[in-house]
Structures are given as C-alpha cells and as structure tokens.
Write a structure and sequence with these properties.
Length: 295
C-alpha cells in the first residue's frame, strides 16, 4: 500500500510540521502538551518564529535536524530540534546552543543583564547515557540542597523516542503521549488517529501528507530519506565491525571468553539504541534471563 504520510523526523518533514507560520497551531499544541503540569508552566497561546536557520557545527550537520527557533507570547525563547545519532559531548553542545540564544538577546538591545528564558527541546533517537528510560528528561537550574527548581532561564528537555514503546492508540492517556504516538508512527498510518477530536491533529493530517509536498519539498524529502538510509547503513556497518573486533579479541584470550565479550558488546550497543532486553533476546535467539544478567 502506498505510504500516505511523510516521516516528520527528517529535516524537511520536521520543518513542515513545526516550522510554518500558517500551521503553528501544531507547534503550540505540542509545546503545551509537553510543558503542562511541569514547573514554570504558562499556557502558550501564540508564538512568533525567530531565525529560520541557526548555524550549527559542521560535524553535526548530517545527524541533527536544523533548529526551529520561536518566541512565545510571554517572551520565552524555544529551540526545537531532532538529534538522529548520539555523539560525544552532545549535552554540552545543547548548552552551547542555549548560551548562544542568550547572548543574542544581549546583542539586540540595550542590556541591563535581564534575559528571557531559553528552552532547548530536543527529540533524540537514542537514550542519553546520563539518564534512564524516561520519555522526557527535564533539566533546569535547581537548589542542590532542597532539590527545588529555582529558575528556568536555561532549560533543557530531551524527548527520548526509544523510551516510547506504545503500539496501540488506546495506550495513550495524555496529550503528550498522543503527540508522540502520532509523530513516531506517522509513516505507517493511513489516518492520524486523534484528528477527529482536535484541530491541531487535523492540521497535522493535512500538512503531513506526501502528496501535499511541493515539488521542491518532495525533492528535499527524498534527499533526507537517502541520508537516513546512509546513516543506518553506516551504523549497521559499525555494529558489525564491533562484533568482528569482539570476535578477534575473543580468539586471543580464549573462545569462550570471546563469545562472552562479543555478546556483551552487542547487547550494550543495542541497549544504547533503546532496544529492550526482550527484543535483543529475540534478535539474538538467547533467553531473556541471560540478556538481563549482562551488565
């Protein structure tokens, strides 16, 4: 059956879904779903888009979707991006981007040291090494003794997509879960399941169709898809090479130890990708209890 909706986690798809003025109801609805019930929440009723392109580091250009920068009606700056692959010092880079948005405020007006809050929000296609399997990681300034948040001047929210494992719409109980479900499963869908109940989801259904892309958008989207295939191929090759290295090391210190080392490296690598122990057990045809013992 012909695919109806594009992948929103490509560069082109991401900008179409979240980066267009005429469709900003999608961005506003998603941000409210993400932030509601959390500290410092104020309902977002409007946004205006900032710079369309934020310069990024050359070595990250192929693995991160370009930032979408917007400012809420209350003055909060929001940077939204998608990170496809992990890399060294990823969280440090996010801090650098946030600091850049702060210094830009200083340059654009007579400065009295007051700053508007900067929220860096990133979808990640992997689990952060510094965290657990929570869907949303929410980090801001806090008092280390009281553990209470004291400021949201620089705030970092990571949405770990591998932590979201719902496969049925009936499992979704919150608005955020409905958004993540819709975005994550869009390429497989014939209809956006929550479109009947909400205008933002109806707009997503309209703009998310492959047939709605302009010729230039379709050309760019095809390029994005090719780059994703290349990244997947590279990662698969790295995994195979890692297994090969593990096998070679294992032969030097004994066949049995080599098998254990190979299994450990393979399981660890797959876990960093967010793959569950049950899925790893099925993939490697090994009892899940044995996988669970590998730490």
């Amino acid at each position: 059956m012909k695919q109806r909706f594009f992948n929103p986690f490509t560069d082109t798809g991401f900008k179409i879904v979240f980066g267009k003025e005429k469709d900003k109801i999608i961005l506003i609805s998603f941000l409210n779903a993400l932030l509601e019930g959390r500290p410092f929440y104020e309902p977002i009723t409007d946004v205006r888009y900032g710079d369309k392109e934020v310069p990024r580091d050359r070595d990250c250009a192929r693995t991160a979707i370009n930032d979408i920068h917007c400012i809420t009606q209350s003055g909060r700056h929001i940077i939204l991006e998608m990170q496809l692959e992990p890399h060294d010092n990823f969280e440090d880079r996010m801090i650098c981007y946030s600091c850049r948005a702060v210094t830009e405020q200083m340059r654009r007006r007579q400065w009295d040291f007051s700053i508007e809050s900067v929220y860096s929000i990133c979808f990640t296609n992997f689990l952060l090494p510094s965290a657990d399997r929570r869907l949303v990681l929410d980090r801001a300034y806090c008092d280390l003794d009281t553990r209470e948040p004291v400021s949201d001047r620089q705030r970092y929210l990571y949405i770990q997509l591998p932590a979201f494992e719902y496969t049925n719409i009936d499992e979704c109980t919150t608005e955020l879960e409905r958004w993540i479900y819709s975005l994550k499963h869009m390429p497989e869908m014939r209809e956006i399941p929550f479109a009947a109940r909400d205008e933002a989801f109806r707009r997503l259904q309209q703009v998310g169709q492959i047939e709605s892309l302009s010729p230039e958008e379709r050309r760019q989207y095809d390029i994005d898809q090719k780059q994703l295939s290349i990244l997947y191929s590279i990662e698969t090759s790295r995994l195979r090479e890692g297994i090969k290295i593990g096998e070679e090391r294992g032969r030097k210190i004994g066949e049995e130890h080599g098998k254990k080392l190979q299994l450990y490296e393979t399981v660890t690598k797959l876990r960093t990708k967010g793959i569950t122990d049950e899925m790893i057990a099925n993939l490697l045809d090994i009892p899940v209890e044995k996988i669970a013992d590998i730490r």
